[in-house]
Amino acid sequence: MTTVDSNTTAPEPVVDPNAVSVTINGKVVAARKGEMIIAAADRTDDFIPRFCYHPRMEPVGMCRQCLVEVVGPRGPMMVVSCMTPVAEGQVVNTETEGVKKAQEGVLELLLANHPLDCPVCDKGGECPLQDQAFSHGPGESRFVEEKRHYEKPIAISDNVYLDRERCILCDRCTRFADEVAGDALISFTSRGNNTQVMTFPDEPFSSYFSGNTVQICPVGALTAKPYRFKARPWDIEHVESTCTTCSVGCRTVVQSSRDELVRYQGVDSQPVNWGWLCDKGRFNFESINSKDRLLTPLIKDASGNLSATSWSVAIDSAARMLRTALTVSPQSVAIIGGARGTNEDAFAWAQLANALGVDSRDSQLADGLPPQVFSLPQATIADIDTAKTIILLAPDLKEELPVLYLRVRHAAEKRTGRVVEVSPRATGLAGKAWKKVHVEPGKTAAALRALATDAAFMAQVASGSVVVIVGRMNLAESEESVVHALAEVLHLAPQATVLPVLRRGNVRGSITAGLTPRNGGKSTAEILEAASAGKIECLVLLGADPLSDVPDADLARRGLSGARNIIAIDTFITQSSATADIVLPAAAYGEKEGTTTNLEGRISNVAQSITPVGTSRPDWMIAVELGTATLHELGFTSYGEVHAAMISRVSEFAPAADTHAVEHDGVIIAHPSPITLTRADGASNERNSYDYRAVVSRKLYDKAIGTAKSPSLVSLAPSAAVIVNPLDVPRIGAQVGESVRVTSQRATLVLSLQESVDVLRGTAWLPINLGGSDVRELLDVSKDVIDLKIEKMS
Amino acid sequence: MTTAIKYPHAAGFVAGDRPKIVTSRFEHADSYTIERFLATGGYAGLRKALGRAATDVHEEVKSATVLGRGGAGFPAGTKWGLTPQQVFPKYLVVNGDESEPGTYKDRLLMERDPHQLIEGCLIACYAAGLSQCFLYIRGEMALAQERVATALNEAYAAGYVGKNILGSKFSVDIVLHWGAGAYVVGEETALIESLEGNRGMPRLKPPFFPAANGLYGQPTIVNNVETLANLPWLMVNGSEAYTAIGTKTSPGTRMVAVSGHVKNPGVFEIINGTTTFRDLLYGAEFCGGIRNDNELKAFVPGGGSAPWFTADQLDLPFEASQVGPAGSMLGSGAIMVMDSTTDIPAAALTLTHFYAHESCGKCTPCREGGTWLERILTRIVEGTGTEADLQQILEVGAMICPGDFPHASNEKLGLAAVPFPYKMTTICFVGPSAFAPLHSAITLFRSEFEARLVKRISIPVTAVSTPPTVWA
Amino acid sequence: MSRLNEANIKTALEIIARYPRPKSALIPLLHLAQEQNGYVTNEAMVHLGELVGVTSAEVYGTATFYEMFRFEPVGKYLVNICGTMSCALMGAGDLMHHAEQKLGVKAGGTTADGMFTLAHAECQAACTEAPTLQVNYRFRYKVTNGDFDTLIDDLKNGKLADEIPAHGVVARIRQRIPADRGVGAVAPELVTENPAWMDGKAAL
Ligand SMILES: Cc1cc2nc3c(=O)[nH]c(=O)nc-3n(C[C@H](O)[C@H](O)[C@H](O)COP(=O)(O)O)c2cc1C
Ligand code: SF4
Ligand code: SF4
Ligand code: SF4
Ligand code: FES
Ligand code: FES
Questions:
Q1: Which of residues 38-67 of C touch A (CB under 8 A)?
Q2: Could you give the count of Cα atoms lying within 13 Å of C117 in the half-sphere of its Cβ?
Q3: Predicted ipTM > 0.95
Q4: Where do the domains of chain A lie, and which CATH numbers do they carry?
Q5: Which of A62, A80, A113 lies nearest to residue B368, judging by beta carbons?
Q6: Does the beta carbon of A82 sit less than 6 angstroms from any atom of ligand 5?
Q7: pLDDT at B234 over 90
Q8: A83 at B interface, C-beta within 8 A
Q9: What is the pTM of this model?
Q10: For residue C22, what are the contacts with CB-CB under 8 A and spacing of at least 6?
Q11: pLDDT, tens digit (0-9, with 9 covering 90-100), for B332-383
């Protein structure tokens, strides 16, 4: 209705059929059909006390704390406001004598068996029970009986402790585990006054999402090991930020106490994470507090050892190295990395590279996708909620992008959309999939092409909006094959939008900022190949560790040993930074401000909450200093300036000018105009029937530095194995658990043989980057697919 | 085909000389066999029903006003009509969980005439378009399970249940299901949870009215065993014959168990609406008076959850519209009689203990309040309670049931009745039921509690698991 | 052998097939497990979870809600004496006291020879026959102290072996739905129309 002729009267207001108006304590509140009274009341100043209600879970009406009166034909009726929907004209009273008495009664009953050990409770000071006992309670307890006794906190998983005496049986943790996470590993047990939350005997609550239960527990019954007794709520400082552990970009509150990170809590951001975090993102702040962090610059001394030096020496030496290399040729300088930093970090480095004329820069580590995927019509995370069909052409979301997994699972569970899983093995979402297209590597595009004759599938994709989630589902299969498969999907569902899921924290932001090959510059694989041929004079590793991350161990090794000089900017000494000539200590997440871009292109802020350790500093600042030292002023010297320059120079980042939005739900980057993909005939890639085609993917917990340096997470990483379908085990002739020899054209490794029905016959699944034999030794990024021999050891 | 079961079945039924709708075969020792069933008009009601359109059968049941016998007394035909027309499948869940204290009738019907129940289930499924039936029998009733299993096996073999019943287009499976010991599962939404393999915790109504949103989220009819057992007779004899028995608002008969301190306890099929409590307790054809001709102290008129009556209410008939205003309910047809020798606080404790013990634990007031009541009462019964404890009972009770709690009138005490029902802060009636007997006992017999109190500060004690018995 | 044995797996699958959703079979299957082992073992619960497609924690949550399931061995005969109102009014307290004397254990305890577990129970739906008890869910009515002694002696001497199976077995007769007679269970979402007989016409 934007073009109303000034002569005509205003159009009839459109009546929203879902709008409902209710009166709460005399105030008229606009609400929506189906909404619960408590949710509508939350938009007024009157607070209805509650324990079991959680806006992101199905109501159970169990604690009875939220009782209110609804005026009905036969006078006021007492109802639970968390499970009573609003109705037109409804009159609700939440503060009458009757309501007050009922609420006080319930609170007194809840406190009856509660130990009231608040002074030693982690929740003390931020406890809904404490708070509501104060605001809505009777003020005293008349319960003189002996209270329920249980063994004091028991570990129900590696990181979560349960104190059943404090539990008020609100069903939040158990509902979360079952409804939201799909890991029903905790349950109410026993009955009545003996009801308690428990795991099955000797089966821990090992969920990737267990930390959420600690966050939503309304009392101190569930506590997290990384936080237990760390700090008291009144000592804590909070800043809202974004998790950059993976590219979902969950919104968090970062909490610190005495200049140390103590806890991350999820923030309910409607477009992103609904308040949830995965345990890796929640607990890996421990790595930032790690004693192993780099505190000073390091430089290789005469005997070839890295030893501490000053920033001025380090910057001068690094600048000299760059200048020398540039005199050979700008093509002999290359930058790998950048996805770990902020948008501003990547932008500053891209500006430095531009100034130096360095075109070979890549923030992907030969495990990503071509940046064109960002130019296809884009989907957002929230589009998953309304999509009729969600096509997964992606890695196992549960392992790689956990909170995105929750979103897709929710859509399937609530039947708002149907999930089609296209994958070389069953992923964590297989159980929720409407259709599974499990196909061996190399044949995905062909299998998708065949779907054109599947009437049910075609009818499904034609029934409404389609979101294709696309990423590298198999690191032992080329990125072209993903692009081919994607082209087929977009051919079958031309209206589909694409959600690219590159997993590193800020990979999309750093590509957007310019850390991606340009003017014929080289990609990471090409850089390493050139280095191995002696053509790279100076290699900059910007928070990158090719020796552990590039899925081709041989290539990475040849590359790093072939590069003449290496400058590493990093938070730790990693396998790769250990080989550098100069190591510059970088400030980590929580130690610097900036913005980050998540997988859907959402820009949101990361906040500084503690001072950087030692003399470490943000990557952008290092770029500025190297610029100065190489006589290239980048035009900014403070964070404010680099941020402003980025917004004005990179058009995609222009929306980030809305500071308020960036500090909350974020803004979506401006997209370049859409392109279309052309279909191509992939090679047929026939496999020798004795071989097993390799499927290589990541587990949530692996040897990545953030996990390895977080004491609470490090032990959760499994060890390397080769996993085949149970029906293939007899063919190999070895027992499950036995060591077998696995041979590719590259190498032979010894791995433990495991079986899983999630793996297709004739394929072998090898989780990467785990303890034990390094699976990357078998891989060759120049190959479309990798075939393996698996043999019993003689 | 009959598998002989040589062990004695449910005792206690007293036939009498009254119209029989559901107990007509009880006089035969082999009433549970298919042979006896067929020889006495068995499955004739089903045949008659299948000869009419389903909607027709439904109308017939509606006009008979078959009140639900599980406790709430809602007319079966009306309940069936509440299911949405165009949502399917719909299910029938038969409530054979009988465990309300004092209640004893469904087990008799299952052990002694299982085919009659099966026939009733079939008629209900046919009339209401229910495509599968689950017959949920209480876990502890081994013989009832055996008898119904045998009957079902016979009925399947003979073509009365399953595919194309009697060669018609009517096909329905009846699946025997059995519980594992939890009183609350008798509550219909908990029954559904349990049938889904879950913990039997009631669901909140609304939104979980079974008729709209029941088993697996589908429209589901939950009916009591006795309710369904009425249907074969009704089909054969018609609704006019049915309503000719009893009163307009309470037609037909109902099964009533009278237990406790009467001369001849027993289970009777009585005429609904007209029979009075006095008839039942004192009538020669029923219990024949209080044991040893003692004085009547009090009686529970409708299962352990019901507020108590005294001799003042003896002349009330079995008619909900009169019992409700008088301060109690008819519930599940269970009368428990206390004579003058009864230790009232201890008697109340058995019931408060029962409901506290049977709480599912879902809602705070019942989970915490029930046990709290039990602890205080235990203290009083053991002689260590104080005046404050007595007051505390009423206050904890008000946390479960705010406002005036129903009770009977009492001339001697000058009490006027507070009508049924009560307000409650809980999901189901188990929480209030822990308080109901106690409230009645304190209201009607306060002096017996006061006599037990010590006039000093009490020392808290832990609840005992077994209620003590302090009476003869 | 505390997972289900071959024969019981067959029975279990037969039971599961009767329900539109497998989890519905859980309580009957827990009984089956208790029947096999006398109590419900952890291994059996894991097995049942696999059979009906839920986690062991969910099986455990359901199982512990219901009083008939035992997670440790109990006596061969579980003697449940009702203590609810009607029975209490008729002397259940004295009967329990006598039973404790006779068996030499308190309510809740098991005799040293593993023959008897004595327990307090709630209303057994036999109130007019008070006081009542159940031995492995078989009734005894209007039980006097003398009746109780005779019962225990008979059980000890194996006189009642025929009537009263060992703890775990509830019903000895199972429902069997013949393949050619059963309609079969269908997941609700796969049902697309009202039943055939809802066509406004008589079925016969
Ligand atoms: C706590 C509680 C326990 C109940 N137990 C039983 C029971 O054991 N048997 C029964 O038929 N109904 C029982 N009911 C009533 C059922 O919820 C339900 O109303 C009844 O089965 C419906 O059948 P009807 O309409 O045929 O009476 C119980 C209700 C409550 C609140
Ligand atoms: S542990 Fe916490 S979240 Fe879980 S039920 Fe208890 S109080 Fe609720
Ligand atoms: S899903 Fe990713 S962004 Fe979210 S908490 Fe986990 S690691 Fe962080
Ligand atoms: S009132 Fe008691 S039994 Fe009923 S739902 Fe609440 S806790 Fe459970
Ligand atoms: S918040 Fe509504 S009942 Fe718990
Ligand atoms: S009270 Fe004992 S059987 Fe009912």
A1: 42, 45-46, 54-61, 64-65
A2: 20
A3: yes
A4: 19-112 (3.10.20.740), 148-225 (3.30.70.20), 298-363+506-595+610-651 (3.40.50.740), 371-500 (3.40.228.10), 692-792 (2.40.40.20)
A5: A113
A6: yes
A7: yes
A8: yes
A9: 0.95
A10: C16, C51, C52, C53
A11: 999 999 999 999 999 999 999 999 999 999 999 999 999 999 999 999 999 9
